[in-house]
Amino acid sequence: MKDIMQWDIKSWSRALSYWENNVDWDNIQNGLELGGEKGGLSLWLTLKGMKIVCSDLYNIKEKSKKLHGQYNICSIVQYQDIDATNIPYENHFDIIIFKSILGGIGRDDNIEQQQKVLDEIYKALKPGGKLLFAENLKASHFHQRMRKKYLNWGNYWRYVSQTEMNGFLKAYSTYDMHTTGILGSFGRTENQRKFLSTIDQVVLNRVCPNKWNYIAYGIAEK
User: Fold this and answer.
1) Share in percent of the chain as helix, strand, coil (round to 5)
2) H or E segment at 54?
3) What letters, b where the CB count within 10 A reaches 16 and e where it falls short, cover 64-90?
4) Closest CA relative to residue 98, chosen from 40, 137, 47, 156
5) Pair 45, 96: CB distance under 8 Å
6) Among 3.30.450.20, 3.40.50.150, 3.30.565.10, 3.40.50.1110, what is the CATH number of 2-138+161-180+215-221?
7) Do 95 and 31 meet the contact criterion of CB atoms below 8 Å apart?
8) Given its phi and psi angles, is residue 76 left (phi above 0), alpha (psi -120 to 50 degrees) or beta?
9) What angle do CA 89, 21, 176 make, to 5 degrees?
10) Residue-by-residue pLDDT tens, the chain, 222 positions
11) What is the signed CA dihedral for 181, 183, 184, 186, rounded to 10 degrees?
12) Where are the domains of the chain?
């Protein structure tokens, strides 16, 4: 799970569990990971027996080879540098998957580029194909202040709201979106994040407004 999700594992792995239980995997043959970086989601899908294109904006094979080499999957994964706002496929994939890419793509308040990503994914999916998404949300005012104060990218990333995510997905025939997480992202070590995420799941996700959650995840179908 650590190799697949990389960071704040207990919080983000809720998306993985949801995808696992809500996709008919027997009818899935090929997939695309966007913004793969180290290729964790490509690893997950490849270990499920799927043909995967692992992609990022540049140099994806170099960035993911350490992790994929540990699992001996480098020879069966296809690596391709792909701009998520200009995907060179049409009606091709059964599954497209991403985790936390919209904030960077929408840097400097470029919501049009964020919408373009979801439109390009729609184009690249086969009819009936599914987008599996997990994305950082704008969350509470406290989250927003802390990002600007402590994260190098906090002042120029464009974190999306739940309302905006709903708008991005309006072209899809159906979609289901869930949110999670209040404190988990504030841990300084993975053990701290695991402890805080447990508090989120046991208490805070139940009693706090959804608009305070910092992760949105779900499935959209073309």
Assistant:
1) 45, 25, 35
2) strand 51-56
3) beebbeeeebbeebebeebbbbebebe
4) 40
5) no
6) 3.40.50.150
7) yes
8) alpha
9) 65
10) 999 998 999 999 999 999 999 999 999 999 999 999 999 999 999 999 999 999 999 999 999 999 999 999 999 999 999 999 999 999 999 999 999 999 999 999 999 999 999 999 999 999 999 999 999 999 999 999 999 898 888 888 999 999 999 999 999 999 999 999 999 999 999 999 999 999 999 999 999 999 999 999 999 999
11) 140
12) 2-138+161-180+215-221
Query: Is the CB of residue 183 less than 8 Å from the CB of residue 151?
Result: no
At 82, phi and psi to the nearest 5?
Answer: -135, 130
**pLDDT for the residue numbered 177:** 98
The model's pTM is 0.96
What is the chain's length? 222
- Tell me which residue of 60, 94, 102 sits closest to 217, measured CA to CA: 102
Measured distance CA(215)–CA(213) in Å, rounded? 6
Kindly state the tokens that stand for 62.
Answer: 């170099």
Max Cα–Cα distance, the chain, nearest Å = 47
